[in-house]
Design brief:
By secondary structure, this protein is α/β, with parallel strands linked by helices. 25% of the residues lie in helices and 24% in strands. The strands form four sheets. A nine-stranded mixed β-sheet has the order 6-5-7-8-4-9-10-11-12. It has a seven-stranded mixed β-sheet with strand order 15-16-14-13-17-20-21. The protein is globular and about 75 Å long.
Length: 471
């Protein structure tokens, strides 16, 4: 009889190797490879015997939209694609203390009040701790079933008894363990095996399951990446401890749009929905201060207006500082280089600080024009028009390139009272977009941007360089 060989699995990324080594070749993490039995997961023996053939079907056929289970929390339902689909499994990640458990207990209470059976399984907290949270949120009258358990087989047996649950919360998947895996709880093999058992139960019973996952220091869901491929949707709950705002973002969704975002505000009674996040992010802005530009951005299918703030000041250091909050550092470096090469600015001896107000991140290339406008405004001391928004991508040649969803951006700006928009000259607008009440100000390149802002400041600039007018 052949001797079974052990496999060595990285506990950080799930990579499999045939021998132990100090550093994982896949993720580069040190001392993360652990020896595991071959029958406990990846690398196990293949199933013996011949397979059973199954019937194949064509692309044509009758299809029906997936039924939805609406929670009543509009921002949550928006991100999930209109509600939970029966039999779906969702992975929810977020930093500790960001409000994941608060959001889920509110969703559980909303469904339970509608007569659905909802089960909340906590592997990290006792039942008394969950009840205290529900008491603070004034949700104790909701008929949510609670339990503190970590054995997957016991959890599935309990949920199978009686009426089928509409929603099951597993908080968290890293604390679960199953007898099918011969490793310690929290390891890659245990997390994968537990997720497989819960996924199988969801597909066979029709219950929706939400798996709560911890995140690593770089914001990724901890554990094997294969779990993200197994589930139907991956949601991340983001926020900054210095702000009250929380963003629920979908990075994967088989039943809805990816990149969708829901905005919440942390209050004394839990998380409150923010129905108009643009107005909230722009509240309290100083429209008369230089270095501030309103960016008309898109979060998934949702237009959102945020303020991009810049501060350009002479430096006393040998190497100027570049500090960024909510913006890509490499993209800022590119914008600075383009402004120097094609805009005639001298930013090499200035400290530059760029911030996206409200704790939001502006990751799309359409934010280039707003960031450049804020930088030029801060350098020249010119105040940008308070009723204008900015969007457009800046290329290395200095040209301002068109972006997608221009109509939705203009409609959102017009709804909030903005009257003009600086956008790429090559941006195509239809009659409906032009009728949004926002006058377009077309820009061909960054030279035209610098010249326009220089005219706002009376033609003077702090660096004394003459602007290049290429408009």
């Amino acid at each position: 009889m052949a001797k079974s060989r052990s496999t060595f699995i990285c506990q950080n990324c799930g990579a499999v190797s045939n021998r132990w080594q100090g550093r994982c070749d896949a993720c580069g993490d040190w001392n993360s490879i652990v020896e595991e039995a071959p029958a406990s997961g990846v690398g196990g023996p293949a199933r013996s015997g011949r397979g059973k053939p199954f019937e194949l079907e064509g692309l044509a056929g009758e299809t029906r939209p997936a039924p939805r289970m609406v929670t009543g929390i509009a921002e949550f339902d928006r991100v999930t694609g209109g509600g939970f689909v029966p039999g779906s499994v969702i992975l929810l990640g977020g930093e500790p203390g960001i409000g994941k458990s608060t959001l889920l207990i509110q969703a559980c209470a909303a469904l339970a009040r509608r007569g659905e059976r909802v089960v909340y399984i906590s592997g990290e907290e006792a039942v008394a701790q969950v009840r205290l949270r529900a008491m603070r949120l004034e949700l104790t009258k909701a008929p949510v079933e609670l339990a503190a358990a970590t054995q997957v087989e016991d959890i599935l047996a309990t949920c199978s008894a009686g009426k089928r649950p509409a929603l099951i919360i597993i908080d968290s998947i890293q604390t679960m363990h199953t007898d099918a895996a011969e490793s310690a709880p929290g390891t890659v093999t245990q997390v994968r095996a537990s997720a497989q058992a819960l996924l199988r139960f969801a597909k066979t019973s029709g219950a929706s399951i939400i798996l709560v996952g911890h995140v690593t220091k770089d914001g990724q869901v901890a554990g094997p990446r294969v779990v993200e491929h197994m589930v139907d949707a991956v949601l991340s709950f983001e926020g900054d401890g210095a702000h009250h705002f929380r963003m629920l973002r979908a990075s994967k969704n088989r039943f809805g749009a990816t990149g969708e975002i829901g905005v919440f505000e942390m209050t004394g009674l839990g998380l409150a929905e923010v129905t108009n996040p643009s107005a909230l992010f722009l509240a309290g802005r100083d429209a008369a201060a230089p270095g501030a530009a309103v960016f008309a951005g898109m979060e998934g299918q949702r237009p959102m207006l945020v303020e991009i703030q810049a501060l350009v000041a002479p430096t006393s250091l040998g190497t100027p500082r570049r500090a960024v909050v909510g913006f890509d550092q490499n993209r800022l470096s590119m914008i600075i280089a383009v402004l120097e090469a094609h805009g005639g600015l001298k930013l090499g001896m200035h400290d530059i600080y760029l911030n996206v107000a409200g704790g939001l991140r502006a990751d799309e290339p359409a934010a280039d024009l707003a960031a450049a406008a804020a930088l030029v405004s801060s350098l020249s001391g010119a105040t940008l028009p308070a009723e204008r928004v900015w969007f457009g991508e800046i290329g290395l040649s200095g040209a301002v390139r068109p972006v997608i969803h221009a109509g939705a951006r203009l409609k959102e700006a017009g709804k909030l009272g903005f009257r003009s928009a600086s956008l790429p000259q090559t941006q195509q607008l239809n009659d409906e977009d032009a009728g949004a009440g926002v006058a377009p100000r077309l820009l061909a390149d960054v030279g035209g941007l610098v010249a326009e802002i220089a005219r706002m400041s009376g033609g003077g600039r702090r660096d004394g360089a003459a602007p290049k007018d290429r408009s």
